[in-house]
Amino acid sequence: MRPRVVCGIAAAVALFATACGSGGGGGQGGSVTAAAQAGGAGAHPVTVADCAGKETVIARTPTKIVTSNASSLEMLLRLGAGDRVIGTGFPPGKGTLPADIAEQGDRIPVLGEKVIPKEKLLGSGADLYVDTFSAMPMMGGGATGPSEEEYAAAGIQHVFLLSTACAGTPKAAKAPRTDLAGIEDDIRRLGAVTGTAARAEELVAGMEKQIGEVRDAVAAVPEDRRPSYFVFDFDAGTKQPVAVCGRQIANAVITQAGARNVFADCDADFKPGSWEDVVAKNPDWIQLAVRNRGSAEATRKAFDDAEAFLKGFPATQGLKAVQEGHFVRLGSEVTTIAGVRNAEAVRQIAATVHPDLVKNGQ
Asked: What domains are there in the chain, each with its CATH number?
Protein backbone atom coordinates (compact mmCIF):
# COMPACT_ATOMS: atom_id res chain seq x y z
CA MET A 1 0.00 0.00 0.00
CA ARG A 2 0.99 3.60 -0.36
CA PRO A 3 1.98 5.82 2.56
CA ARG A 4 -0.77 6.61 5.02
CA VAL A 5 -1.14 10.22 3.97
CA VAL A 6 -2.09 9.15 0.44
CA CYS A 7 -4.09 6.08 1.43
CA GLY A 8 -6.29 7.82 3.96
CA ILE A 9 -9.39 5.84 3.10
CA ALA A 10 -7.40 2.64 3.52
CA ALA A 11 -6.97 3.44 7.18
CA ALA A 12 -10.65 4.22 7.47
CA VAL A 13 -11.74 0.86 6.12
CA ALA A 14 -9.00 -1.38 7.45
CA LEU A 15 -11.47 -3.59 9.27
CA PHE A 16 -13.47 -4.11 6.12
CA ALA A 17 -11.23 -4.04 3.06
CA THR A 18 -8.71 -1.76 1.50
CA ALA A 19 -6.87 -0.87 -1.60
CA CYS A 20 -5.99 2.51 -2.99
CA GLY A 21 -7.79 1.85 -6.24
CA SER A 22 -10.41 3.04 -8.62
CA GLY A 23 -13.94 2.14 -9.46
CA GLY A 24 -16.40 2.46 -12.24
CA GLY A 25 -15.82 1.90 -15.91
CA GLY A 26 -13.00 2.94 -18.11
CA GLY A 27 -11.52 -0.22 -19.58
CA GLN A 28 -8.96 -1.40 -17.07
CA GLY A 29 -8.44 -4.77 -18.72
CA GLY A 30 -9.01 -8.17 -17.21
CA SER A 31 -11.36 -9.65 -19.76
CA VAL A 32 -13.09 -12.97 -19.19
CA THR A 33 -13.49 -15.54 -21.95
CA ALA A 34 -16.90 -15.66 -23.62
CA ALA A 35 -17.35 -19.30 -22.65
CA ALA A 36 -16.79 -18.47 -19.01
CA GLN A 37 -19.35 -15.69 -19.10
CA ALA A 38 -21.96 -17.98 -20.51
CA GLY A 39 -21.49 -21.04 -18.35
CA GLY A 40 -21.44 -22.19 -14.76
CA ALA A 41 -19.34 -24.81 -13.02
CA GLY A 42 -18.53 -26.57 -16.28
CA ALA A 43 -17.32 -23.45 -18.11
CA HIS A 44 -13.64 -23.83 -17.27
CA PRO A 45 -10.97 -23.13 -18.32
CA VAL A 46 -11.42 -19.41 -17.66
CA THR A 47 -8.87 -16.84 -18.77
CA VAL A 48 -8.52 -13.60 -16.77
CA ALA A 49 -5.94 -10.83 -16.85
CA ASP A 50 -4.22 -8.62 -14.28
CA CYS A 51 -3.77 -4.84 -14.37
CA ALA A 52 -0.88 -5.13 -16.85
CA GLY A 53 -2.84 -7.43 -19.15
CA LYS A 54 -0.96 -10.59 -18.17
CA GLU A 55 -3.32 -13.53 -18.54
CA THR A 56 -3.97 -16.36 -16.10
CA VAL A 57 -5.83 -19.51 -17.08
CA ILE A 58 -8.00 -21.00 -14.33
CA ALA A 59 -8.22 -24.63 -15.42
CA ARG A 60 -10.88 -25.82 -12.99
CA THR A 61 -13.31 -24.53 -10.40
CA PRO A 62 -11.35 -23.59 -7.26
CA THR A 63 -12.21 -25.45 -4.08
CA LYS A 64 -10.02 -23.68 -1.50
CA ILE A 65 -10.09 -19.91 -1.76
CA VAL A 66 -8.31 -17.26 0.31
CA THR A 67 -9.29 -13.60 0.05
CA SER A 68 -7.13 -10.60 0.79
CA ASN A 69 -9.91 -8.73 2.57
CA ALA A 70 -13.61 -8.47 3.26
CA SER A 71 -14.44 -6.88 -0.08
CA SER A 72 -13.68 -9.99 -2.12
CA LEU A 73 -14.96 -12.13 0.77
CA GLU A 74 -18.37 -10.48 0.60
CA MET A 75 -18.47 -10.94 -3.17
CA LEU A 76 -17.78 -14.67 -2.77
CA LEU A 77 -20.43 -15.01 -0.06
CA ARG A 78 -23.01 -13.27 -2.24
CA LEU A 79 -22.03 -15.44 -5.21
CA GLY A 80 -22.70 -18.57 -3.16
CA ALA A 81 -19.06 -19.64 -3.06
CA GLY A 82 -18.54 -18.91 0.63
CA ASP A 83 -18.31 -22.59 1.54
CA ARG A 84 -15.06 -22.74 -0.42
CA VAL A 85 -13.37 -19.84 1.36
CA ILE A 86 -10.76 -21.16 3.79
CA GLY A 87 -9.38 -17.85 5.05
CA THR A 88 -9.20 -14.09 4.70
CA GLY A 89 -7.11 -11.10 5.57
CA PHE A 90 -8.58 -7.77 6.72
CA PRO A 91 -11.65 -9.54 8.14
CA PRO A 92 -14.98 -7.71 8.21
CA GLY A 93 -15.59 -5.74 11.36
CA LYS A 94 -18.33 -6.89 13.66
CA GLY A 95 -21.67 -5.89 12.22
CA THR A 96 -20.19 -4.93 8.84
CA LEU A 97 -21.57 -7.71 6.67
CA PRO A 98 -25.25 -7.73 5.70
CA ALA A 99 -27.40 -9.92 7.94
CA ASP A 100 -28.07 -12.58 5.30
CA ILE A 101 -24.38 -13.47 4.95
CA ALA A 102 -23.00 -12.36 8.31
CA GLU A 103 -23.18 -15.75 10.04
CA GLN A 104 -21.32 -17.53 7.27
CA GLY A 105 -18.81 -14.69 7.03
CA ASP A 106 -18.10 -14.85 10.75
CA ARG A 107 -17.07 -18.50 10.39
CA ILE A 108 -14.33 -17.79 7.84
CA PRO A 109 -10.88 -18.27 9.46
CA VAL A 110 -8.88 -15.06 9.81
CA LEU A 111 -5.36 -15.53 8.44
CA GLY A 112 -4.33 -11.95 9.11
CA GLU A 113 -5.97 -9.03 10.87
CA LYS A 114 -4.42 -6.88 8.14
CA VAL A 115 -2.36 -8.26 5.26
CA ILE A 116 -1.96 -12.04 5.48
CA PRO A 117 1.66 -12.88 6.32
CA LYS A 118 3.44 -14.18 3.26
CA GLU A 119 4.36 -17.55 4.77
CA LYS A 120 0.83 -18.13 6.07
CA LEU A 121 -0.69 -17.31 2.70
CA LEU A 122 1.68 -19.61 0.78
CA GLY A 123 1.12 -22.41 3.30
CA SER A 124 -2.66 -22.03 3.48
CA GLY A 125 -3.43 -24.85 1.05
CA ALA A 126 -5.42 -22.49 -1.16
CA ASP A 127 -5.77 -23.10 -4.87
CA LEU A 128 -6.97 -19.53 -5.51
CA TYR A 129 -6.11 -16.17 -3.94
CA VAL A 130 -8.45 -13.26 -4.67
CA ASP A 131 -6.51 -10.05 -4.24
CA THR A 132 -7.64 -6.44 -4.01
CA PHE A 133 -4.17 -5.00 -3.56
CA SER A 134 -2.48 -5.66 -6.90
CA ALA A 135 1.27 -6.05 -7.31
CA MET A 136 2.39 -3.14 -5.17
CA PRO A 137 3.89 -2.77 -1.69
CA MET A 138 1.22 -3.86 0.75
CA MET A 139 0.09 -2.51 4.08
CA GLY A 140 1.97 -3.65 7.16
CA GLY A 141 5.46 -2.38 7.75
CA GLY A 142 6.22 -2.00 4.06
CA ALA A 143 6.06 -5.76 3.49
CA THR A 144 5.44 -7.11 0.02
CA GLY A 145 3.35 -10.06 -1.01
CA PRO A 146 4.57 -13.25 -2.63
CA SER A 147 5.96 -13.14 -6.15
CA GLU A 148 4.01 -14.79 -8.94
CA GLU A 149 6.68 -17.50 -8.99
CA GLU A 150 6.06 -18.17 -5.30
CA TYR A 151 2.30 -18.36 -5.84
CA ALA A 152 2.86 -20.87 -8.65
CA ALA A 153 5.23 -22.98 -6.55
CA ALA A 154 2.59 -23.17 -3.81
CA GLY A 155 -0.11 -24.18 -6.30
CA ILE A 156 -2.05 -20.94 -5.79
CA GLN A 157 -3.56 -19.10 -8.71
CA HIS A 158 -3.74 -15.35 -8.22
CA VAL A 159 -6.56 -13.12 -9.47
CA PHE A 160 -7.41 -9.49 -8.77
CA LEU A 161 -10.39 -7.23 -8.23
CA LEU A 162 -9.33 -4.91 -11.02
CA SER A 163 -11.69 -2.07 -10.09
CA THR A 164 -9.69 -1.50 -6.90
CA ALA A 165 -6.30 -2.89 -7.89
CA CYS A 166 -5.49 -0.96 -11.04
CA ALA A 167 -5.99 2.75 -10.39
CA GLY A 168 -2.42 3.45 -9.33
CA THR A 169 -0.82 1.49 -12.17
CA PRO A 170 0.49 2.82 -15.50
CA LYS A 171 -2.30 0.95 -17.29
CA ALA A 172 -5.02 2.80 -15.39
CA ALA A 173 -7.48 4.80 -17.44
CA LYS A 174 -6.84 8.51 -17.03
CA ALA A 175 -10.43 9.67 -17.27
CA PRO A 176 -12.53 9.93 -14.10
CA ARG A 177 -14.64 6.91 -13.20
CA THR A 178 -18.25 7.85 -13.70
CA ASP A 179 -20.05 4.49 -13.61
CA LEU A 180 -19.86 1.16 -11.80
CA ALA A 181 -19.03 -0.96 -14.85
CA GLY A 182 -15.64 -1.92 -13.39
CA ILE A 183 -17.23 -3.28 -10.21
CA GLU A 184 -19.83 -5.16 -12.21
CA ASP A 185 -17.04 -6.63 -14.36
CA ASP A 186 -15.26 -7.79 -11.18
CA ILE A 187 -18.41 -9.56 -10.00
CA ARG A 188 -18.83 -11.24 -13.38
CA ARG A 189 -15.14 -12.18 -13.48
CA LEU A 190 -15.25 -13.71 -10.03
CA GLY A 191 -18.46 -15.51 -10.94
CA ALA A 192 -16.78 -17.01 -14.00
CA VAL A 193 -13.72 -18.09 -12.01
CA THR A 194 -15.80 -19.73 -9.26
CA GLY A 195 -18.42 -21.29 -11.54
CA THR A 196 -21.18 -19.01 -10.27
CA ALA A 197 -21.69 -16.94 -13.41
CA ALA A 198 -25.49 -17.12 -13.29
CA ARG A 199 -25.57 -15.75 -9.76
CA ALA A 200 -23.11 -13.03 -10.78
CA GLU A 201 -25.52 -11.88 -13.48
CA GLU A 202 -28.32 -11.74 -10.91
CA LEU A 203 -26.22 -9.55 -8.63
CA VAL A 204 -25.24 -7.23 -11.48
CA ALA A 205 -28.85 -6.98 -12.64
CA GLY A 206 -29.89 -5.96 -9.15
CA MET A 207 -27.22 -3.27 -9.05
CA GLU A 208 -28.17 -1.94 -12.46
CA LYS A 209 -31.83 -1.77 -11.45
CA GLN A 210 -31.03 0.35 -8.39
CA ILE A 211 -28.65 2.61 -10.27
CA GLY A 212 -30.99 2.93 -13.23
CA GLU A 213 -33.85 4.10 -11.03
CA VAL A 214 -31.64 6.82 -9.53
CA ARG A 215 -30.24 7.81 -12.93
CA ASP A 216 -33.73 8.25 -14.31
CA ALA A 217 -34.83 10.23 -11.26
CA VAL A 218 -32.01 12.79 -11.50
CA ALA A 219 -31.64 12.86 -15.28
CA ALA A 220 -33.34 16.23 -15.64
CA VAL A 221 -30.92 17.97 -13.25
CA PRO A 222 -28.33 19.86 -15.35
CA GLU A 223 -24.69 19.08 -14.65
CA ASP A 224 -23.96 22.58 -13.38
CA ARG A 225 -26.92 22.39 -10.98
CA ARG A 226 -25.85 19.15 -9.34
CA PRO A 227 -24.61 19.63 -5.77
CA SER A 228 -20.87 19.53 -5.09
CA TYR A 229 -19.74 16.78 -2.74
CA PHE A 230 -16.69 16.15 -0.55
CA VAL A 231 -15.81 12.81 1.04
CA PHE A 232 -14.30 13.54 4.46
CA ASP A 233 -12.15 10.61 5.54
CA PHE A 234 -12.34 11.18 9.27
CA ASP A 235 -10.46 7.99 10.18
CA ALA A 236 -7.41 9.06 8.19
CA GLY A 237 -6.87 11.89 10.65
CA THR A 238 -7.82 15.52 10.64
CA LYS A 239 -4.46 17.23 10.22
CA GLN A 240 -4.40 16.79 6.45
CA PRO A 241 -7.49 15.81 4.44
CA VAL A 242 -7.23 13.22 1.70
CA ALA A 243 -8.82 13.95 -1.66
CA VAL A 244 -10.88 11.16 -3.17
CA CYS A 245 -10.00 11.69 -6.82
CA GLY A 246 -11.49 10.87 -10.17
CA ARG A 247 -10.11 7.35 -10.54
CA GLN A 248 -11.57 6.16 -7.24
CA ILE A 249 -14.74 4.08 -6.99
CA ALA A 250 -16.32 6.79 -4.86
CA ASN A 251 -16.20 9.20 -7.80
CA ALA A 252 -18.44 6.84 -9.76
CA VAL A 253 -20.77 6.40 -6.80
CA ILE A 254 -21.07 10.18 -6.34
CA THR A 255 -21.58 10.80 -10.06
CA GLN A 256 -24.28 8.15 -10.40
CA ALA A 257 -26.06 9.68 -7.41
CA GLY A 258 -26.40 12.98 -9.24
CA ALA A 259 -23.69 14.92 -7.40
CA ARG A 260 -20.24 16.30 -8.32
CA ASN A 261 -17.11 15.14 -6.53
CA VAL A 262 -15.17 18.32 -5.75
CA PHE A 263 -11.88 16.50 -6.39
CA ALA A 264 -12.93 14.65 -9.54
CA ASP A 265 -10.31 16.53 -11.55
CA CYS A 266 -7.25 15.16 -9.72
CA ASP A 267 -5.79 12.37 -11.84
CA ALA A 268 -5.33 9.74 -9.16
CA ASP A 269 -7.37 7.55 -6.85
CA PHE A 270 -6.36 9.26 -3.61
CA LYS A 271 -4.19 12.33 -3.14
CA PRO A 272 -3.01 14.24 -0.07
CA GLY A 273 -4.71 17.59 0.08
CA SER A 274 -5.06 20.56 2.37
CA TRP A 275 -7.90 22.24 4.20
CA GLU A 276 -7.24 25.27 1.99
CA ASP A 277 -8.18 23.07 -0.99
CA VAL A 278 -11.43 22.03 0.69
CA VAL A 279 -12.29 25.61 1.64
CA ALA A 280 -11.70 26.73 -1.93
CA LYS A 281 -14.14 24.07 -3.19
CA ASN A 282 -16.74 25.00 -0.52
CA PRO A 283 -18.85 21.85 -1.08
CA ASP A 284 -22.63 21.77 -0.90
CA TRP A 285 -22.53 18.39 0.87
CA ILE A 286 -19.94 16.57 2.97
CA GLN A 287 -19.91 12.83 3.47
CA LEU A 288 -18.79 11.83 6.95
CA ALA A 289 -16.90 8.73 5.84
CA VAL A 290 -16.13 6.60 8.88
CA ARG A 291 -15.59 2.88 9.11
CA ASN A 292 -18.00 0.60 10.92
CA ARG A 293 -17.08 0.49 14.61
CA GLY A 294 -18.73 -2.85 15.34
CA SER A 295 -21.94 -1.56 16.87
CA ALA A 296 -24.61 0.94 15.91
CA GLU A 297 -23.86 3.05 18.98
CA ALA A 298 -20.10 3.19 18.40
CA THR A 299 -20.53 3.96 14.70
CA ARG A 300 -23.04 6.70 15.47
CA LYS A 301 -20.52 8.25 17.88
CA ALA A 302 -17.87 8.21 15.16
CA PHE A 303 -20.24 10.09 12.85
CA ASP A 304 -21.00 12.54 15.66
CA ASP A 305 -17.27 13.09 16.27
CA ALA A 306 -16.60 13.72 12.57
CA GLU A 307 -19.43 16.25 12.39
CA ALA A 308 -18.29 17.95 15.60
CA PHE A 309 -14.78 18.33 14.20
CA LEU A 310 -16.01 20.09 11.07
CA LYS A 311 -18.24 22.39 13.11
CA GLY A 312 -15.45 23.28 15.52
CA PHE A 313 -12.41 23.47 13.25
CA PRO A 314 -11.76 27.11 12.23
CA ALA A 315 -10.93 26.19 8.63
CA THR A 316 -14.18 24.32 8.04
CA GLN A 317 -16.80 25.81 10.33
CA GLY A 318 -17.69 28.44 7.73
CA LEU A 319 -18.16 26.01 4.85
CA LYS A 320 -21.57 26.07 3.19
CA ALA A 321 -22.24 22.41 3.94
CA VAL A 322 -21.29 22.84 7.59
CA GLN A 323 -23.37 25.98 8.01
CA GLU A 324 -26.41 24.29 6.47
CA GLY A 325 -25.91 20.94 8.19
CA HIS A 326 -25.58 19.15 4.87
CA PHE A 327 -23.89 15.96 6.04
CA VAL A 328 -24.21 12.49 4.55
CA ARG A 329 -23.63 9.77 7.14
CA LEU A 330 -22.39 6.94 4.97
CA GLY A 331 -19.56 4.57 5.77
CA SER A 332 -16.29 4.35 3.92
CA GLU A 333 -16.78 0.68 3.11
CA VAL A 334 -19.71 0.99 0.73
CA THR A 335 -18.35 4.13 -0.93
CA THR A 336 -14.70 3.45 -1.70
CA ILE A 337 -14.47 -0.35 -1.87
CA ALA A 338 -15.77 -2.52 -4.72
CA GLY A 339 -18.94 -4.45 -4.00
CA VAL A 340 -22.63 -4.97 -4.59
CA ARG A 341 -23.40 -2.34 -1.95
CA ASN A 342 -21.90 0.43 -4.11
CA ALA A 343 -25.30 0.55 -5.80
CA GLU A 344 -26.98 0.96 -2.41
CA ALA A 345 -24.58 3.84 -1.68
CA VAL A 346 -25.64 5.52 -4.92
CA ARG A 347 -29.25 5.32 -3.84
CA GLN A 348 -28.57 6.57 -0.31
CA ILE A 349 -26.55 9.58 -1.48
CA ALA A 350 -29.16 10.47 -4.08
CA ALA A 351 -31.98 10.24 -1.55
CA THR A 352 -30.07 12.64 0.70
CA VAL A 353 -28.94 15.28 -1.80
CA HIS A 354 -32.04 15.01 -4.04
CA PRO A 355 -34.84 14.30 -1.52
CA ASP A 356 -37.47 15.77 -3.83
CA LEU A 357 -36.49 13.38 -6.64
CA VAL A 358 -35.43 10.19 -4.86
CA LYS A 359 -37.86 9.35 -2.06
CA ASN A 360 -36.73 7.03 0.73
CA GLY A 361 -33.88 5.79 -1.43
CA GLN A 362 -36.29 4.67 -4.16
From this structure: 8-209 (3.40.50.1980), 221-361 (3.40.50.1980)
